[in-house]
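[retry 2/3] Polyprotein: previous attempt timed out, resubmitting with same input.
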Amino acid sequence: MTSLLEKGVPFNWTKERQAAFDELKKRLTTAPVLTLPDLTKSFTVYCDASKEGLGCVLMQEGKVIAYASRQLRKHEVNYPTHDLELAAVVHALKIWRHYLFGNKCEIYTDHKSLKYIFTQNELNMRQRRWLELIKDYDLEIHYHPGKANVVADALSRKSYVNMAVAFQMPFELCVEFESLNLGFVHHTTVATFEAEPTLEQEIRNHQKTDEKIQEIREQIKLGKAPHFREDEQGIVWYKNRICVPDVDSIKKLILSEAHDTAYSIHPGSTKMYHDLKERFWWYGMKRAVAEYVAVCDTSPEDFEGYVQDFNEF
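[retry 2/3] Polyprotein: success.
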């Protein structure tokens, strides 16, 4: 659709553009849900560039705060790779200046030579100009392998980080607003719009037919399940962790999002388990995580069918 904005281009609304428009509307009304920044803490920025455009993600403590991307301008298409990657960094610094200026920031890029941008002896005029801008910020540039730093792809998909944030309750959001001293939380209605389908909705629907969770519900009613509870929406929780039904597709989605997305960066089984257990619970989850990581690290082709194996546990 962006090409229609160019001068002299006739307006031709094709099926592909209609599909892109529908997809855009869907993305705007569907998770991921972003979190609010804490200006007393440091930030992390992931940057990437290609011959199509620039992409970057602003994060804090593993949670996504904002996404930004744009197409390359005509004169930028001829930039060398080094300049394109540096342009992505500059784009992030400019668009999020109100967050990053004066705060410590770590920037990750998949272009290794950018690590040494501050000590390079020979720079072209464009690089010198950008370097002057970069020096205004308290930042460190780190190299991140391309396979793990797929930010351009991550901009078009839901990550585990967002999947976890999507379970944040409206009350928690009100507390965050109140901490910002905005002065309106107690005087207005905080409105949300319904994002469908969400993982929480999928879990809720399948909990109704899960035999083990039905048994837990009965135990809750009898007062024999002290660590479990059922909320007003009928969702069963283990402490503060949602109970995941015995459905292969849901478990596989949770595991893959926790391990394979741009920001999880293929963690080991111990870290992945500790990350997941903050939000999710099911019988045999620790073993499921260990087996998933083992399969992923040895043979990605063996993914299919592994869920059935650990469900037997």
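[retry 2/3] Polyprotein: DSSP finds 13 helices and nine strands in the chain.
[retry 2/3] clearing retry counter.
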